[in-house]
Write a structure and sequence with these properties.
Helix content is 15%, strand content 52%. Strand 3 and strand 4 form a beta hairpin. It contains two helices and seven strands, in the order H-E-E-E-E-E-E-E-H. The N terminus is likely disordered. It has a single domain, classed as Surface-adhesin protein E (Lipocalin, Beta Barrel), CATH 2.40.128. The protein starts with a helix and ends with a helix. With 120 residues, it is α+β, with helices and mostly antiparallel strands.
């Protein structure tokens, strides 16, 4: 799993949203389609290191999401907190347990990622 994350970091990232705190990216090179469900990696890349609840610092979060291309919903399938930007460096924390399906808000960041993943 981590080798997939590491190799995807060198691929082309598309900035989906940016503010004073972070930039959110999507990576279309990581798209995997299974019927109407599409999986794609994204990263939340922080300008200043953040602290988790235990005080450990992280600079980015790699997030793999499943998008339903027929319905406006998504699911986080896995994520990992990294010590360095763009998913690099030591893994501070990770979860491989998929979350529940969530509704996508139109014209939001997740909707922009869904449009990239689903090609819409």
């Amino acid at each position: 799993m981590l080798s997939i994350v590491s190799s995807s970091v060198t691929a082309e990232w598309i900035a989906v949203d940016k503010n004073a705190t972070l930039t959110i990216y999507a990576n279309p090179a990581t798209i995997f389609k299974n019927g109407n469900i599409v999986r794609m990696w994204g990263v939340r890349d922080f300008n200043i290191a953040q602290a988790d609840v235990e005080g450990d610092l992280y600079a980015s979060i790699m997030i793999q999401k499943n998008f339903d291309c027929n319905e406006a919903r998504y699911q986080i399938s896995s994520y990992s907190y990294h010590a360095e930007n763009m998913g690099q460096g030591a893994v501070i924390y990770n979860s491989l347990t998929p979350g529940g399906w969530r509704k996508i808000v139109s014209n939001g960041v997740v909707d922009a990622q869904r449009k990239i993943a689903c090609g819409k």
